[in-house]
# Entry
Amino acid sequence: MVLVSKLINLASIYIVTSFGMADLSQLFVKLTDLEQIIKANATA
# Structure
């Protein structure tokens, strides 16, 4: 699990440096929307 969190941290740093903060927040919104869709499909 530690390895996974380190990979996520590295990925988030990479995303921030590549796209900047504004795009990152948009990406986060899209990810949370996607998560809601997945949860809805799982319960349906």
